[in-house]
Amino acid sequence: MKQRKDWSVLLGAAFLMATSAVGPGFLTQTTVFTQSLGASFGFVILASVLIDLGVQLNIWRIIAVAEKRAPDIANIVLPGLGSLIAVLIVLGGLAFNIGNVAGAGLGLEVLFGITPQMGALLTAAMAIAIFLVKEAGKAMDRFAQIMGLLMIISIVYVAVTSGPPVGEALVRTVAPTKIDFMSIITLVGGTVGGYITFAGGHRLLDAGVKGQAALPQVTSSAASGITVASIIRVFLFLASLGVISQGLAIDAGNPTASVFKLAAGQIGYKLFGVVMFSAAITSVIGSAYTSVTFLRSFHAGISRNENRIIIGFILLSTLIFVLVGKPVSLLILAGALNGFILPITLGTMLVAAHRKSVVGEYRHPLFLTFCGLLVVLVMAWMSSRVFIEQAHTLFA
């Protein structure tokens, strides 16, 4: 019975991470970059998956062995660093969550014809209901699994109906005609940047899956989370590529909805509503939960009132959207910004992995350390290049 419980927790953490990553921004980014890069976007996906694995396997293992949340670990490495990281991640999580609430409202508008604002309010009510349940953790795990499977089934159907050039996609995945650093940073930032990379690790810690003995389960759960997110990304890419290869024009105002409708007609358009709502509401839950876990280190009262603060986080995100409206390019920008934060958070965790004051006698695998360090250097290099390019464009 315990083994079944452990499997449920591991799968729940994997899907929490994956569905936190697969939000409205994820859908928009994938479609927009497929438009600009075509089949070569497959290379961007491959590069991002390899980087994602290097990030997740390092961070989740270190959290499990240290038996502490990320900000507490960072504060041991350098006093005050954990608090700084917590502030950055909570602000990024709030920015993402405003877009997530907006995306859920849009999904319900497609499905039922209600206004996005009304859809956002209904989404907030459903998300809050999960944290009012006595065993909110289990409810969150199960909800993430159901919504994740619903997304996969819907996107696979649309990808098949669009008839993508799979052979060309496979070739360009390893031999791209164009490499775009901004797209790689944005994808990585949107998949494992900011709060997202810690969603599953913190969930496992809260569920009691920790210590060196739990490392095989932690590694399996981390890899499963990346696999689920990657499957969704690949099929969404193929769906978009199938539409583009037919020479059909994608509506710039709502590119992902356009792809679904062009690929599968009115059924596809309704499936877009299902996917958008599923992606958005699970991201609302994942963002709120993980962001608040970063606040625990500030005051003991936060842990005692965690669910109430999570509910407040959801309400604040919804209120900002309803009053201000959907930020124009917030989703893609938030993904890119999280890509900039990633070298700081991963670098800190790698230092912690070799501090006895954090991990005791545990010896972090040199291979994972090397991979993690490589990710830090590559992401820092690409981020600096993108920053210089953006600055040059701004002041030219």
UniProtKB/TrEMBL annotation:
GO terms for cellular component: plasma membrane. It is found in: Membrane. One of its GO terms (molecular function) is manganese ion transmembrane transporter activity. Keywords: Membrane, Transmembrane, Transmembrane helix. The keyword Transmembrane helix applies. GO terms for biological process: iron ion transmembrane transport. It is a multi-pass membrane protein. Pfam families: Nramp. The chain crosses the membrane at residues 37-55, 76-98, 110-131, 143-161, 181-201, 222-249, 269-295, 307-324, 330-353, 365-388. It comes from the Bacteria. This is Divalent metal cation transporter. It comes from Hymenobacter jejuensis. The lineage of its organism: Bacteria, Pseudomonadati, Bacteroidota, Cytophagia, Cytophagales.
